[in-house]
Specification:
The structure is a single chain. This protein has one domain: Uracil-DNA Glycosylase, subunit E (3-Layer(aba) Sandwich), CATH 3.40.470. Strands 2-1-5-6 form a 4-stranded parallel β-sheet. A two-stranded antiparallel sheet has the order 3-4. Helices cover about 40% and strands about 10% of the residues. It contains 9 helices and 6 strands. By secondary structure, the chain is α/β, with parallel strands linked by helices. The two termini are about 30 Å apart. Bound molecules: iron/sulfur cluster (SF4). Iron/sulfur cluster binds near residues 19 and 105.
Length: about 190
């Protein structure tokens, strides 16, 4: 019998549901495996990741690994860590910034992908798109408010800002992030991976 997760991955890789809206065409980039204990829900691949096909292989990924304390080897071990963006394909850019993740993607794929990873103990919600979907947060909640209230997130969920270059200035303006959130994040990630 065919492995259901392999079948799901094959389906995802063949997806072209929103091809008409994708500047460079469909190229779904995800990392999932049945044993994953940490799920990282980000936004969408950027142009560099679209070109390489390797999730988070860019400056944002470097920063996220630093924040979480994960080595590259652990981060890219699908049996430990799943990488599941809100939009699996590069959405294109406008006015110097990447467009938001395609809205069709998470409703189409996430429930099945998450159900295929029953050992997940911790989900990092990276950026406001993931937080709006999974924290059931009011639309008016800002990213800073959502991250500041990380202790009130539902069990097993941890909200984070997107680790883009913009987060450097944001961290300077919000020193509580490095002082309080990052140590708690590293502890939670360590506990999830056991
Ligand atoms: S972004 Fe998601 S829904 Fe759109 S083509 Fe890629 S995998 Fe399919």
């Amino acid at each position: 019998m065919k492995d259901p997760l392999a079948a799901l991955l094959a389906e995802i890789r063949g997806c072209a549901v929103c091809a008409a809206h994708l500047a460079l065409g469909p190229r779904p980039i995800v990392q999932i495996a049945a044993g994953a204990r940490l799920v990282i829900i980000g936004q969408a691949p950027g142009a560099k990741v679209h070109a390489s096909g390797v999730p988070w292989q860019d400056d944002s990924g470097e920063r996220l690994r630093e924040w979480t304390g994960l080595s590259a080897a652990s981060f890219y071990d699908a049996e430990q860590v799943a990488l599941l963006p809100m939009g699996f394909c590069y959405p294109g850019a406008a006015q110097g910034a990447d467009l938001p993740p395609r809205p069709e993607c998470a409703p189409l794929w996430h429930a099945r992908a998450l159900a295929a990873m029953p050992q997940c103990r911790l989900t990092l919600l990276v950026g406001l798109h993931a937080q709006r979907r999974y924290l059931d947060a009011p639309r008016a909640l800002t990213l800073t408010q959502a991250v500041r209230a990380f202790r009130d997130a539902p069990p097993g969920c941890f909200p984070l800002p997107h680790p883009s270059w913009r987060s450097t200035g944001w961290m300077r303006r919000n020193p509580w992030f490095a002082a309080e959130v990052l140590p708690a994040l590293r502890a939670a990630v360590g506990a999830a991976l056991g």
